[in-house]
Amino acid sequence: MPYLTHFNLGEHPFSLTPDTALYFPGAAHREVYESVFYAIRRGEGIVKVSGEVGTGKTLLCRMLLDALGNRAAVAYLNNPRGDADWVVRAICREFGINVQHSDDLYDSLNRFLIEKHAVGVDNVVLVDEAQALGEVGLESIRLLSNLETEKRKLLQIVLFGQPELDRLLERHNLRQVAQRISFSFGTKPLSEAEAAAYIRYRAKMASRNPEAAMEIFSAPAIRHIVRAGQCNPRLMNILGDKSLLAAYAEGAVQVERRHARAAVQEARQLSLRRRGRFFPLPWWLRPASGLVSGAVLTVCAGALMAALYVAISRDRFYDISPWIMQNASLLSNAISR
């Protein structure tokens, strides 16, 4: 991108691809990482990490993948399918087990796990976007968790998923899966102070000279991005990148609040083309939206009452129920908005 040279950046500071080199060590996120790592080393079976889109689950998964390194045999499943046979085959492929000449996948996998366990190597499965497993896939995970010795699970499984995963596990027919989860952690948006530090940190670490990097973002610009992005790392990455482009297009050497506002406006226009709002209304507009809804409701109610008064005052007591139903529908739509 042209703005890299303009701002003396060696790489994109706000890429949407999870980059462990630009990991920002927020307190809550670091705590989840350390807790999951501890649970894996302890051999507790199934661990669950859930959180909203953009709160750092995939980055956490990649960090665990790097940290485990040669200490463990790791199978990484990204965007899994809700098919039991696919789940077992995918894990076998990740472990390097020849699945084409295997009559019994579970038997082949069990032998592999026992061999690794005998030489002190942990076996770990990391499942990203685990909500995609569905009921069938999660049941296959439960069956895999049954592979164990007398004292220890042979397979440590970490499920990373969106809140839909939590709702799946609340179903009665998946209670056995839910009961196998030893630890459950959640990723959350950053605090406002951490979010501001996150933007500065990413811009600094992406600089060609981090030790002498200038402040690319002004304080007002950072505040605007943090509020509009709701302290969500992915949303702030989108806004940060668009703010840099806006500042570059103007030839500015620093991102100011006007550039951040332009970035938010562009992102919101794009998101409104999709179903629902990706970027929520800014906090200062939420009272205004409530006032508008209240005004519409008041006008509709007033019009209805005035019409009824006129009809009664003129002794026109004919059946006006169709008209009332029509206006009641209008009133209901106004309330729902």
Task: Output the keywords.
5 strands; 10% strand; 14 helices; 5-stranded parallel sheet; globular; 337 residues; Helicase, Ruva Protein, domain 3; alpha/beta; Rossmann fold
Q: How would you characterize this protein structure?
A:
- It is a single chain.
- The chain is an alpha/beta fold and 337 residues long.
- Helices cover 54% and strands 10% of the residues.
- The protein has 14 helices and 5 strands.
- It has helices at 3-6, 27-42, 57-68, 84-94, 105-118, 134-144, 163-169, 175-179, 192-205, 219-228, 233-250, 257-271, 286-313, 321-336; strands at residues 46-51, 72-78, 122-128, 156-161, 181-187.
- Helix 4 crosses helix 6 (134-144).
- It starts with a helix and ends with a helix.
- 31% of the residues are buried.
- Residues 272-277 have low confidence and may be disordered.
CATH top-level class of the largest domain: Alpha Beta
CATH architecture descriptor name of the largest domain: 3-Layer(aba) Sandwich
Total individual domains: 3
Please name the CATH topology of the largest domain: Rossmann fold
Radius of gyration: 27 Å
Distance between the termini: 41 Å
Tell me the structural class: alpha/beta
Which segments are poorly predicted (pLDDT under 50) over 5 or more consecutive residues?
272-277
- What's the total count of β strands? 5
Give the H and E element order. HHEHEHHEHEHHEHHHHHH
Please give the largest β-sheet: 5 strands, parallel
Rounded mean pLDDT is 82
Rough shape? globular
Which strand order spans the largest sheet, edge to edge or round the barrel? 2-3-4-1-5
Relative strand content: 5-15%
Q: Number of helix segments? A: 14
Task: Please bin the fraction of helical residues.
Answer: 40-55%
CATH superfamily of the largest domain: P-loop containing nucleotide triphosphate hydrolases
